[in-house]
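Name: Insulinase family protein
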Amino acid sequence: MKKSIMVLGAALLLGGIASAQKVDFEEYNLDNGMHVILHNDPSAPVVVTSVMYHVGAKDETPDRTGFAHFFEHLLFEGTKNIKRGEWSKIVTANGGVNNANTTDDRTYYYEVFPSNNLELGLWMESERMLHPVINQIGIDTQNGVIKEEKRTRMDNQPYGNFLTVVKENMFKKHPYRWMPIGSMNHLDAATLEEFQAFNKKFYIPNNAVLVVAGQIDVAQTKEWIQKYFGAIPKGETLIKQTFVEEPITQTIKATYQDPNIQIPAIVTAFRTPSMKTRDARVLDLISSYLSGGKSSKLYKKIVDEKKTALEIGAFGLNQEDYGMYIIYGLPMTPFTSADLLKEIDEEIVKIQTNLISEKDFQKLQNTFDNLFVNTNANVEGIAENLAKYYMLYGDVKLINNEIDLYHSITREEIREVAKKYLNPNQRLILDYVPSTEKAQN
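Structure predicted for Insulinase family protein:
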């Protein structure tokens, strides 16, 4: 009886969490094609104004890479009504913060203000869309900023280029084969007219979703949105090109020499399906089971018990068209990269052969419940999730019910999906080794 009461109490507690986590929202379209999502949260006097554009590195051409990431920076340069260098000063002076980020699939801009500055946030984002100043001064300035970013984060960073090498080996046709930061030579060669044309094509209302989340008066917010965004002209309808990769049927082997490291790394990567698919969600569970933190199977076995590696880790790169599951490790002397790969493969074979235990399965469910709660724990996370689920998944309701999809996955599915995607003939093996050459400055 006591056990039953405890179970009932736990169920009620989880039910309360699910109810508290439900994100209420309203969505509609403006006449110019811009999608709008509103989320009223009166719990704190803050508001997020954000715009996600459906443009990322995959929308570039092979001879002009890096444009989407470049615009992440460039569109802070100024507008017709916001002088160059004043954007962040205006935000800070009004008690706010702002930022932006770019992936292969989309670009996201946002401001967080005290709720009484909502109109300011909406005006600023409408200025970015309608009146950006794209001139040679701004291009030259941001070109230097991005070159320094690449030197700091990639070229002079230990293991800083391993994802670059993985992507260029895993994709042959799809633009996922290059990094969002792109090629500095391409950016140097691009003309002002090319940058202006890129802006005109992609940074348009019918290629964007506006999310306003926080303490808002919904009726007043709608009036301001119409006032500042309603008159922005609709852009030309975008036709997205589709890229289909041939299946990987034999092991791809590659070597990269990094002058910034002393300890070699072994990297193995598998191509996975679109993040919108059920299989991608099953692979998320597999990734967590094998390599999600220090209690995962790979870490406990390879680092804690056998001490084969100094470090072992993995991550899934979930994307709109394809994804990747990437495992990496640094062997501990006297073990080699080959020894480490053997240990990794043994754990993958186990999950392909046997059902994971009920205890481990329940642990996975608990882990993903926590992730679900945490990603919607603040208004900033909610705003980005609302934009993401609309733009990349085509279903805003997933902000509330995606966790149900994870709950519906079975142990049998985990085994079958591991068999389907995590085989030696379907992967890249990258030997990431030290080089005697000096690092770039």
